[in-house]
Amino acid sequence: PNKDAQQAFGNITNTPKRENHLYTGKYSGDAQASTEKTGSPNSKLYKQHRVTKSLFKKFNQITWPLDARPLNKSLIRGDKWKKTDAAQEKRRAFLQDFCKKYGGGNHAQSHLFHMVSRIYVEDRHKILYCEVPKAGCSNWKRILMVLNGIASSAYNITHNAVHYGKHLKKLDSFDLKGIYTRLNTYTKAVFVRDPMERLVSAFRDKFEHPNSYYHPVFGKAIIKKYRPNACEEKINNGSGVKFKEFIRYLLDSHRPVGMDIHWERVSKLCYPCLINYDFVGKFETLEEDANYFLHLIGAPRELKFPNFKDRHSSDERTNADVVRQYLKDLSNMERQLIYDFYYLDYLMFNYTTPFV
């Protein structure tokens, strides 16, 4: 990969300095606790402090990346899933080879709790699902709610219940032992999408429809910085961001507002070279991959992955033709820079070079 991409990848995999905040940030144990006698009122706190220190030490001894395991296919019968399974094995092997070649087998630099903050937990079927926005994540969360017994059908769960209902647990809500155990014993899945399609889909969703968060937070800042002579009214309401302006923001190393999960790289959301995912699904074959995964984990037979569009259902789905329409307003240099920005995602998941 080019130097920038190697540097970006190095940020994921470089050996970390030992920093105490890995455990003190999550457990606010009094530093004085270690000097307390066992019989004192602080003895419980002292014990917790000792346990936490022990777990932290254990975490530092973990070999990253975690070992890849063969998929458990004991529940698969017949030839129905043969083609899907072959594609799955090819993807897993490709990602593992990529990580061996470029990951260097180094330790995790990232704070553990941050590294697993996008991973949803379903304890009944022992699933970890890393959320990649604009790659079928709303319907995946609906499926997790059904599997967990929170809902009886994926088809009657609203968008707000999925995203704001707090029904699902994330891996960073567990203690170190809980995280470590689940990472090593649960089936870990990630679903990805062509980076350029995902980017255009995110722009259409957040900036071409009324939005009470993205317009005032991102829209205002983008129009103010990247639109010459913008009128006060446009700056104040933040609506009407153009795709070219959005791209200037994305590629700006001094962005007026930070990154957002909807257009953040998968390499930064799910850490696929440190957390070895057992299953790599793709948005391009979403239903087929998702239903095969449900078979693998022993989900109820009647449970099928929903195929409806979560929001703005009358809009055409973002596909290669739609992407071309958006890219034609950009210069060749801008297109190349977007590709460079998502370079690792293109390589890791074997997506073909876009129209640059």
From TrEMBL:
One Gene Ontology cellular component annotation held by this UniProt entry: Golgi membrane
One Gene Ontology term of the molecular function aspect: dermatan 4-sulfotransferase activity
EC annotation from Swiss-Prot or TrEMBL: 2.8.2.-
Signal is among the record's keywords: no
Stored Pfam families: Sulfotransfer_2
UniProt topology in membrane: Single-pass type II membrane protein
Localization: Golgi apparatus membrane
One GO BP: carbohydrate biosynthetic process
Main location group: Golgi
Biased composition (Polar residues): 1-15, 31-43
Protein's UniProt keywords contain Transport: no
Region annotated Disordered, chain positions: 1-43
Record-stated family: Belongs to the sulfotransferase 2 family.
Name of the featured protein: Carbohydrate sulfotransferase
Source organism per UniProt: Sarcophilus harrisii (Tasmanian devil)
Gene giving rise to this polypeptide: CHST9
